[in-house]
Predict the 3D structure of the following.
Amino acid sequence: MVVGGTVVTPTGSEVADVAIRDGKIAAVGHDLPRDGFEVIDAKGRLVLPGAIDVHTHVRLSDEAHPHRFGQDLAAAAAGGTTTVLTFNNPGTGITSEGSSSPLAGLDEFRARTMRQAPIDFGLCSVISGTQPRALDQLPELIARGVPTFKAFMVYDFALPDDAIERAMGIAARHGGMLQLHCEEPSIIDPLVSEAVASGRVGARYHAACRPPEAEALATKRAIAMARRAEAPLYIVHLSCAEALDAVAEAKAAGQPVYAETCPHYLAITDAVYADESDADVMRRVISPPLRSAADVDALWTGLRDGVLDVVGSDHVPDRLDTEKRLPAPPFPEISNGGPGIETLTSVVYSEGVARGRLSVERMVEVLSASPASLFGLSAKGRIEVGMDADVVVWDPDARRVIRQDDLHHTSDFTPYEGLEVTGAPVRVLSRGADVGPPSGQFVERRIAAP
Ligand SMILES: [Zn+2]
């Protein structure tokens, strides 16, 4: 039983006890009878539902790294995340057979993650233009607990527009939803060619080739496709004001469009591209790239007023020497992405709640409750009777500095090195138990009808 803490829900916060039985929340109330319960004293602390990180690219374990998958999920838990959804895009360790068909990818993912994870997890299947039968398999994937699919409008595994629109429709008719990476190759590709031809190949030129208008244009096209397909749409890692405006407009028109941003877009600006050395900038090679201070402000406003629904980490456990290939290759060859699975709640709490930019109630909504309802995790995301006891006791006053040396993820750097943060998890329960043994389960998800 978690006793005397301030229990936070999307609609309010209140000092209460939380009784846990058989991995579920059995009661929430004042002065609950304690007999037979282990008591966790949470006085002066917040009691939060564990974060649900719906955007990660955790790599599968292999012979060279036999604990890689479990270690990144343990890192998530150390930061206050109790459920992780991950993608199986190329580069995450899935074999070529798993990559060639979504159903084979699901089978391989389940087989290769068994008894490894210390917290619950699920798969968001990547649907790519290189998988001949991907669209036919969507209904069966949904039936098997994978109702959300990621497609890319860029990269060599992009899905062509006509297939995206068809996938949206098929998914919608069977209770699923597409998650779309919105960037416009017709703007990006010529800029990259031009930069390379003129010898501007350092890491800092990556960002200049992926301007906000490339993201905004693709976002608007995606919204139009979803409207024609009469389908819901989830936009991943939205990073700029212009794309945000397009989402606001669609929502105002009543279209079921949802959008996610990531902690790095909320905490770091594109000033680092000019300020840092090329070797440091290489750590910031992500897509979309970091944006201006004005964009950062717009994203916080969007989170507050509900245009943005979710914050996900977009964790990519790259290592500088191997995946990023230090010293940096020409920027078009640098692996995109950076780690963030362990720092998600810390960054959102510190930069948002502690700085007065986000209420703690809204924080649990964008980190827990909304991800649970949008992604079909009906037993998770709230401190409420009957829900899984995925509970984080959070010290709102702790102060620390984020250092790679203190983190547990499988990457060898953090984008937040040296960032002073307020707030820290002091106890993390997964289904009512301290995180440790690999007892996390693959969660078969079902999205509730709207
Ligand atoms: Zn991603």
